[in-house]
Amino acid sequence: MKIALAAGTRPEFIQFEPIVREVKKRGLDYLFIHSGQHYDYEMDKIFFDEMHVPAPTHYLSVGSKLPGEQVGEIITKSEKIFLEEKPDLLLVTGDTNTALGVALAANKTKTRIGHFEAGMRSFDRTMPEENNRIIIDNISDYLFCPTKTGVENLTRCGLTENLYNVGDVMLDSMLHYRENIRMPSQVAGDLGLKEREYFLLTIHREANTDNETRLRSILGALSSVQCPVVFPIHPRTRQRIRQYGLSLPENFVTIPPQGYFEFLRLMYHARMLLTDSGGAQKQAFFLARPCVTLRPNSEWMETVENGWNILVDSDREKITKAVAGFSPRGTPDLTLFGDGHCAEKIIDKIMI
Ligand code: UD1
């Protein structure tokens, strides 16, 4: 059996790490397509270096483009690879333009598709990712959901064939690298930041970055926080802040995007996380750190219902209140995201 793996953005490199580890452990024949959607060292290669993900076998160099052009180029280039390499199955994750483009190319070349992180929904069709994931789920042959919610969402749409709740690959990595993640943060040390005395902030969603009012509201709310806000800044966000002529509040400590380990160490030792990322909401839950989500909705409602995540949108008052008083009790129920053996289960199923 020959498996094609495809990724192109920061979260996908992280999500593929346990899958590639499992594929290599079993000595399976694979090809690894990298679209090049992300290309800066801190958004791309650092994850391969740090997590020992093997180098891609096929690099598409698409870079940043208009979304349609980007998806189109990914389809055209990966279709050629599928025709030449004839893999038995493609594995993609989540909802990026890369996952959509490569999945469409697989569909056109009659290559079976396994979609992991399937079935997740924000029910917000203004998000490009929501449309991407709906299309990918509908053309996939195997649907690997990370949670019970994913299975329920797909069942409601009649997508019940080869539908499995396998748990979340991000929990696999988190447990695998547990010791390493709990080490002191070098960045926090260098900046003289004390444990639990700083907030960690990430913003990169189009809905927040490409809307000046929302971005101003979030930054404004956080300017009154009494302790430092560590802000590893995504390239898209950096560009928009410059474009809108915004200046960052004085309590902000801006740093470049961080690799897997340093970002999680910063999170583990922070007082709380403020984010619009999906993956970071889960990582905060796994690390038992309170998460304030700068969106009106979430694909990861288990983290909200379990009491560790709160949705505040870009509302200044809600952000201020959450930052001052959000303090979850007890311990997060990690079993909601599986048992840390998600990658094994995915490979088992596609090998049948
Ligand atoms: C993409 C995914 C999103 C994921 C996110 C993680 C889609 C539709 N969205 O969003 O689901 O959560 O990745 O980061 O696929 N840029 C650089 N250097 C890079 C990469 C991007 O400067 O290495 C800049 C470019 O100006 C680019 C912009 O960031 O236009 C946005 O990048 P893009 O990949 O289009 O979207 P993300 O916001 O990263």
Walk me through the topology.
Elements: E1 2-7, H1 10-25, E2 29-34, H2 45-51, E3 58-59, H3 67-85, E4 89-93, H4 97-108, E5 112-116, H5 128-139, E6 142-145, H6 148-156, E7 163-165, H7 169-176, H8 178-181, H9 186-190, E8 199-202, H10 206-209, H11 212-223, E9 229-232, H12 235-244, E10 252-255, H13 260-269, E11 272-275, H14 278-286, E12 291-293, H15 301-305, E13 309-311, H16 316-325, H17 342-351
Helix pairs in contact: 1-7, 1-17, 3-4, 4-5, 11-16
Bound molecules: uridine-diphosphate-N-acetylglucosamine.
Uridine-diphosphate-N-acetylglucosamine (UD1) binds next to helix 1, helix 5 and helix 12.
Strand content: 15-25%
State the helical fraction: 40-55%
What is the CA-CA span between the terminal residues?
A: 11 Å
Strands, total number: 13
Q: Which regions are unreliable across 5 or more consecutive residues at pLDDT < 50?
A: none
| Average of per-residue pLDDT values | 97
Largest sheet: number of strands, sense, barrel closure: 7 strands, parallel
Order of helices and strands: EHEHEHEHEHEHEHHHEHHEHEHEHEHEHH
Identify the bound ligands: uridine-diphosphate-N-acetylglucosamine
> What general form does the structure show?
globular
Provide a count of the helices.
Answer: 17
| Major sheet: arrangement of strands | 3-2-1-4-5-6-7
Structural class category: alpha/beta
Radius of gyration: 20 Å
